[in-house]
Amino acid sequence: MMRAWILPILLVLCGSALATGSTARGNPGAAAAVLVVFVLLAAVNSPLIFPRSIGALEAQRRSAEDGRPVVFWRPGCTYCLRLRLRLGRSARRALWVDIWRDPAGAAAVRAVNDGNETVPTVVVAGRSHTNPDPAWVREQLSLPKRREGHRGRKPSSGSER
């Protein structure tokens, strides 16, 4: 849990130190601007901007039931942030697994990425995709909605991509 907050905490501390130095030199306006920038950077790199994370096993179970993509991510990852921001509101439909909080999630990512914890790794219909195009992920997020009436049934092979 603490590992996910290390980068945001460091950003706030660095921003506070720089702001204190600017205030001591008689630049309160610059100090406020620096502090705001660092707090915004901390917020963007915190787990708060991402939908609530669940465990890898629970995510895989839910994905098997309704076909939603599972997104493995970690705080501080610029590619994960890019994916999250480009997905917009539709990101809430995905199942998010923070690999720093869930050892099973980290192991799942290492298993499909040659031992590396490369994120974002998106799993759709049992196939993993490392750092996929956000437009493709958004398209995958719209697919389960069409299959909601068919829970419990596997999609036909003609609908897989």
TrEMBL record:
The chain crosses the membrane at residues 29-50. Keywords: Membrane, Signal, Transmembrane, Transmembrane helix. Pfam families: Glutaredoxin. Residues 1-19 form the signal peptide. Residues 70-127 form the Glutaredoxin domain. InterPro entries: Glutaredoxin, Thioredoxin-like_sf. Residues 127-161 are annotated as: Disordered. This is Glutaredoxin domain-containing protein. It comes from Streptomyces pulveraceus.
